[in-house]
Amino acid sequence: MIPFNRPFIVGKELHYISQAVQDGNLAGDGPFTHRCTEWMEQRFNARKVLLVHSCTAALEMAAILCDIQPGDEVIVPSYTFVSTVNAFVMRGARPVFVDIRPDTMNIDENLIEAKITPRTRVICPVHYAGVGCEMDKIMELAEKYGLLVVEDAAQGVCATYKNRHLGTIGHLGCYSFHETKNFISGEGGALVINDTRFLERAEIIRDKGTNRARFFRGEVDKYTWVDIGSSYLASELTAAFLCAQLEESDKISAARLRIWNDYRQELSEVAAAGHLRLPCIPPACTHNAHMVYIILNLPEEREKLMAFLRQNGIYAVFHYVPLHDSPMGKNFHPLEQSLPHTENLANRLLRLPCFYELTTREIHYISGKIKEFFS
User: Fold this and answer.
1) CATH code assigned to 249-374
2) Which of 266, 300, 317, 349 has its CB surrounded by the most CB atoms within 10 Å?
3) Measured between alpha carbons, how far is 43 from 12 in angstroms, rounded to an integer?
4) For the segment 16-51, what is each residue's pLDDT rounded down to a tens digit?
């Protein structure tokens, strides 16, 4: 059986966890937390990074920092994970869904402006599969209309758009270190703060609405409740595991790019024959090989191929059910407004196994079975 994903250990993960236990510091904001955030700040040229327990937590913090109020609107793609939207809906906002581009599966930047109203507060682009959205156009629109941009870069760690790291271009950025991502810690995430006006409040929101960080720095003689917030800190065990992964980031990235390129080479012939479509990487983007997906010609073909692969010990999966077509999403999206590319491509996209320890031999076997299906 070749699973869709397999968590992995690549360096000193267990040693660092043991060290954290021996040092008696398991709660958040310990030495490993600081090592992780410093690594990201330096590597990505980010103004400030706060480690949190999930990308969901980072998005929720971003919604609070954007001062989302009931009745506000947030422009998002429908083809994304539910956390992207939930963070804003929980603050009382209404998601305004925009169709995706058929080439990259990212939000179509040319459709955003028509969705902006006096109630719009935020644009939330999602960098699908670690391929950057057209951020220049999105940032221009944000400046023109006085909006904030929150990048959902859950899949985009170490990927770039015009030589800038995803997550560092908008006012705020959100990363994920879930076990299905490139760099993992089981759960885990980070909030990237690119606008200085959010720096102090982000620290407070992350630590239950208290100014405890200032207390630990000796800036106040005691800490107290000063704002809303929650317990968004990642534990030191999470940080220890992640720290070891980040130290080996070049090795992990090289392995994933090898996997991505092996798939592309193996499937190029069947793609050229018109049986499927491979991912598109725009010239302005360097991707991080987060995901290997194929797009079939017909929805029923995807279902048959998925079942065929399963019969042969290969666990391939579909991805998101479009949010505007979900039971909750229908409460926000007008029934008469279709999102044609989202609806069409969501039913034809199939994700193939992609994880650090996937071998060239396994990729050859998976690709061979796909070729056999079409033959």
Assistant:
1) 3.90.1150.10
2) 349
3) 20
4) 999 999 999 899 899 999 999 999 999 999 999 999
